[in-house]
């Protein structure tokens, strides 16, 4: 008994279906991660994701600068009280 012959397109269809499934999974994940992502169509979701990344990078930069400022303030003793200065408090 001989096996069925598959059409040459069979592998391409299966691959395309797998790619579609993977893309759908990635879109669902983006919708979960990006604020407001559940309320927009997929093409707008990509724009919203790009905007969200820009905002996150800006927040990271602000936090980095604040962290450096706090380290400089702490290390240079601008708020340090010496023993002699403590008596004046």
UniProtKB/TrEMBL annotation:
GO biological process terms on file: regulation of DNA-templated transcription
Keywords from the UniProt entry: Transcription, Transcription regulation
Full protein name: BHLH domain-containing protein
Annotated organism of origin: Panicum miliaceum
Basic residues: compositionally biased ranges: 1-16
Domain of life: Eukaryota
Alphabetical list of PANTHER family matching this protein: TRANSCRIPTION FACTOR (PTHR33124:SF9), TRANSCRIPTION FACTOR IBH1-LIKE 1 (PTHR33124)
Region (Disordered): 1-20
């Amino acid at each position: 008994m001989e096996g069925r012959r598959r059409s040459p397109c069979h592998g391409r269809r299966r691959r395309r279906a797998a790619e579609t499934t993977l893309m759908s999974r990635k879109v669902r994940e983006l919708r979960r991660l990006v604020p407001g992502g559940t309320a927009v169509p997929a093409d707008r979701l990509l724009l919203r994701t790009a905007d969200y990344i820009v905002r996150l990078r800006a927040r990271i930069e602000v936090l980095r600068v604040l962290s450096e400022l706090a380290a400089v303030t702490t290390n240079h003793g601008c708020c340090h009280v010496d023993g002699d200065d403590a008596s004046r408090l």
